[in-house]
């Protein structure tokens, strides 16, 4: 069972790390902390003493306790052989291949991985970044969390940049995500790729397409932009475009309900373009439950060339994602940064992979 002193220490530390108490702000007095936590003065002093030793708190004689500049001890002046990798997910979808690619390169160069999983949640991203910095990692490879939205952890990113910790982004570029952070990146040309995919559907004869995109990540926003640009190049049918936007925390049934509304229309769309293969596989199963055949009644396409997409029935038409290659490139880039070598950002051009889930729309029967 956690001791009273540890509870006080953890609560104060969490409040400082979360920004509730900014640097140099005065903290509550010992008496106020005793009342708040219902503990003795000794317990408060022990907790505060630990935080002072760990550089979270400093005292002014006769003036009270204040928040220390707890960032300043985070520097890369160490012999650390650990590289921190922070991604929105670790164990599923395309991420194991990306991480495997990173590990292939950095392990050959004498480094080890420290993994952080944000679940695309800013609070968990903050904890992951703090853990990386407390561990004094040599460098960082980061997939930004909810990269299309304002980031409340910008103070940590700024500290990383100020401390000159070698850092790069994957699946995002700083220009579109956080312009103030001049980190190199490895990403995909999502706008052009999605436009190419929609043009392929147009070439099959589809005119009314549902685009389903996750819009709290910059990848989803870019892919949606590609969808819109494809229709802009065909103004005669642009009115037939259909967009569904969702965020990473939305339940699947909320998304499929909106898809079902379109599919029940008398002049229903003939194709669905999904944000990624993970979503496309779920949508494919859903439309089958509605009694629709894929691709005879409705075509479905994805993005990322997820390993399972090839083995679906029907196999999924998609766009490639350079998963393992991206990881290897990120690993080489971070090693070069650690060795003070110049690096250039990389943007992959995803290739169209044509399988069986999309075909020409059937003409309505009499």
TrEMBL record:
Ranges for domain HTH gntR-type: 2-70
Annotated keywords: DNA-binding, Transcription, Transcription regulation
Any matching Pfam family: GntR
Gene Ontology MF terms: DNA-binding transcription factor activity; transcription cis-regulatory region binding
Protein name: GntR family transcriptional regulator
Organism for this UniProt entry: Levilactobacillus zymae
């Amino acid at each position: 069972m956690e001791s009273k002193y540890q509870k006080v220490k953890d609560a104060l530390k969490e409040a400082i790390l979360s920004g509730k108490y900014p640097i140099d702000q005065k903290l509550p007095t010992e008496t106020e902390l005793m009342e708040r936590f219902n503990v003795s003065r000794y317990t408060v002093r022990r907790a505060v003493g630990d935080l002072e030793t760990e550089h979270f708190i400093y005292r002014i004689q006769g003036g009270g306790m204040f928040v220390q500049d707890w960032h300043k001890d985070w520097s890369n002046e160490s012999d650390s052989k650990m590289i921190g990798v922070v991604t929105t997910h670790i164990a599923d979808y395309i991420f194991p291949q990306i991480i495997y690619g990173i590990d292939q390169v950095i392990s050959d160069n004498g480094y080890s991985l420290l993994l952080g999983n944000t679940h695309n949640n800013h609070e968990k991203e903050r904890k992951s970044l703090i853990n990386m910095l407390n561990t004094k990692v040599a460098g960082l490879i980061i997939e930004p969390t909810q990269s299309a939205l304002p980031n409340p952890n910008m103070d940590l990113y700024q500290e990383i940049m100020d401390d000159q910790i070698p850092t790069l982004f994957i699946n995002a570029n700083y220009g579109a995500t956080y312009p103030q952070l001049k980190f190199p990146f490895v990403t995909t040309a999502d706008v052009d790729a999605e436009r190419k995919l929609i043009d392929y559907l147009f070439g099959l004869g589809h005119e009314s397409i549902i685009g389903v995109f996750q819009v709290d990540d910059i990848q989803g926003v870019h892919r949606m932009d590609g969808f819109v640009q494809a229709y802009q190049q065909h103004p005669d049918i642009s009115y037939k475009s259909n967009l569904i936007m969702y965020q990473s925390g939305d339940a699947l049934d909320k998304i499929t309900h909106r898809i079902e509304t379109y599919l029940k229309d008398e002049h229903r769309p003939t194709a669905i373009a999904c944000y990624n293969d993970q979503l496309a596989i779920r949508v494919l199963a859903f439309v089958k439950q509605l009694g629709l055949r894929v691709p005879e009644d409705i075509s479905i396409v994805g993005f990322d060339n997820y390993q399972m997409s090839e083995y679906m029935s029907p196999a999924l038409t998609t766009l490639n994602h350079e998963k393992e290659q991206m990881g290897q490139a990120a690993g080489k880039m971070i090693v070069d940064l650690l060795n003070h070598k110049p690096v250039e950002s990389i943007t992959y051009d995803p290739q169209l992979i044509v399988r069986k889930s999309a075909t020409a729309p059937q003409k309505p029967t009499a």
